[in-house]
């Protein structure tokens, strides 16, 4: 049994919170650059250029690229041969968020209750998902999620008879409904299958997949390409002012499901698609 | 692409009428931040006949909740938030004298109507480019609703804040 002390977990989470908010991942950065070359709208081109300049400034001066530094979504993969010592894992993660948001001058956006809406003033609690994996490592992904895009996400329990066409229609409808709100160009995370909550988590995990890596499943790879084409044909464009760059990518995750169901979740991510991994 | 128009705030009706949907504009002068919670409260004040904490006559509200400033700086990153969440409140505030709003994303019909009726304007800022926009803020001061934290009303002095005219005073709408 490998022992990992909560102090190192707290510190890692704090560092990852700052890095995620100030440094755009390389795949998104490169994709923005190539879209700027191919964008036909001159206003759209100008907006993409400004988005890239913002990412450069954020990284250089360690400033949050977006003021909405999000609710902190954290995926934890914990090896079954790991023993966390010194306290509770969840407390250590939330302490890390608290420290990172304060040290990095990141905005506190979390309210205590959905009704009373009093700010917790330290961005805790995070939304934490745990997976137990083989081995003795602790892997942590920090993915701050802004609500400009989160609010535009949807989930629908389709019928098996709705089939592939129904799935495609729903995904396109969600992007259409989102329109200019979620800071296009967006990234479309799709989760298909499992149960209601499984589809939602799959869609969020789909936002973490690198844009420059083709889906290993050839059917899903071609579905992703087809949907990206169709999403871009909606011509919502950068910032919603028209143009071909509506999305940078469509990423799909699937899971076995029930004979009676076809859950589909679409999690919209903004161009500031922030996520970083760390491990202990 | 059109040239960048430099606008000094406050706006007057000649300036507003000279701006058209699609124009790229750099704003310099005073703007007030205010978003969901501040809008709700201001509309409650108006409904109860209570004076607003700021005089909205001729003013600009920027839908933004900034990041905390680093030491020695006036403000942290400060980009626009989704404007449609303010649609329920904007017509009342426009009625009360507000002339311009800065946010991101489309507005509903009642806001477009209020803009047309009162010769207002809606500027869109690029969502997410908050680090760049933060650099345009020369000073910031909380002037009302301090308890709302990032959602408090702040008076900002901005220099060359980059925005795009999304809905002009004639109701031309860049989102359509």
TrEMBL record, chain A:
EC number: 4.2.1.2
Keyword check for Lyase: yes
First-level EC class: lyase
Every Fe-S hydro-lyase tartrate dehydratase alpha-type catalytic domain range: 11-277
GO molecular function: fumarate hydratase activity
Keyword set, alphabetical order: 4Fe-4S, Iron, Iron-sulfur, Lyase, Metal-binding
Highest rank taxon of the organism: Bacteria
Pfam families (UniProt xref): Fumerase
Family recorded in the similarity comment: Belongs to the class-I fumarase family.
Protein name: Fumarate hydratase
Species the sequence originates in: Ignatzschineria rhizosphaerae
UniProtKB/TrEMBL annotation, chain B:
Keywords noted in UniProt: Lyase
Origin: domain of life: Bacteria
Residue span, Fe-S hydro-lyase tartrate dehydratase beta-type catalytic domain: 12-176
Family: Belongs to the class-I fumarase family.
Protein name: Fe-S-containing hydro-lyase
């Amino acid at each position: 049994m490998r022992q990992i002390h909560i102090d190192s977990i707290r510190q890692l989470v704090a560092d990852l919170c700052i890095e995620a908010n100030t440094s755009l991942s390389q795949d998104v950065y490169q994709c923005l650059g190539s879209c700027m070359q191919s964008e036909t709208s001159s206003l759209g081109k100008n907006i993409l250029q400004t988005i890239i300049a913002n990412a450069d400034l954020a990284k250089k001066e360690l400033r949050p690229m977006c003021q909405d530094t999000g609710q902190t979504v954290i995926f934890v993969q914990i090896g079954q041969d790991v023993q966390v010592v010194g306290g509770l894992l969840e407390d250590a993660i939330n302490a890390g968020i608290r420290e990172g948001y304060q040290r990095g001058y990141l905005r506190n956006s979390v309210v205590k209750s959905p009704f009373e809406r009093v700010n917790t003033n330290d961005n805790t609690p995070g939304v934490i998902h745990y997976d137990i994996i083989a081995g003795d490592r602790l892997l942590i992904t920090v993915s701050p999620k802004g609500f400009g895009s989160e609010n535009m996400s949807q989930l629908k329990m389709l019928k098996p008879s709705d089939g592939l066409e129904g799935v495609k229609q729903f995904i396109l409808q969600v992007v259409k409904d989102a329109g200019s709100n979620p800071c296009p160009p967006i990234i479309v995370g799709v989760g298909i299958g499992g149960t209601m909550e499984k589809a939602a988590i799959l869609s969020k995990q789909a936002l973490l997949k690198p844009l420059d890596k083709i889906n290993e499943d050839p059917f899903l790879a071609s579905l992703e390409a087809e949907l990206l084409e169709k999403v871009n044909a909606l011509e919502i464009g950068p910032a919603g002012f028209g143009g071909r760059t509506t999305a940078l990518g469509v990423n799909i995750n699937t899971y076995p499901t029930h004979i009676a169901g076809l859950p589909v979740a679409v999690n919209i991510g903004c161009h500031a698609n922030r996520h970083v991994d760390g491990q202990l | 692409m059109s040239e960048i128009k430099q606008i000094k705030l406050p706006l007057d009706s000649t300036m507003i009428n000279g701006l058209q949907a699609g124009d790229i504009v750099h704003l310099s002068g005073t703007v007030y931040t205010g978003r969901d919670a501040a809008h709700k409260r201001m509309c409650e004040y108006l409904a109860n006949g209570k004076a607003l904490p700021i005089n909205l006559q001729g003013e600009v509200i920027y839908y933004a909740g900034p990041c905390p400033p680093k030491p020695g700086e006036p403000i942290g990153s400060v980009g626009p938030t989704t404007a449609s969440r303010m649609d329920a409140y904007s017509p009342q505030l426009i009625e009360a004298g507000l002339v311009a709003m800065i946010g991101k994303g489309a507005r509903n019909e009642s806001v477009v109507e209020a803009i047309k009726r009162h010769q207002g304007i809606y500027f869109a800022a690029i969502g997410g480019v908050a680090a760049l926009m933060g650099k345009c803020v020369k000073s910031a001061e909380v002037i009302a609703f301090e308890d709302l934290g990032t959602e408090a009303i702040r008076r900002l002095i901005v220099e060359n804040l980059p925005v795009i005219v999304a809905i002009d005073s004639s109701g031309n709408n860049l989102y359509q």
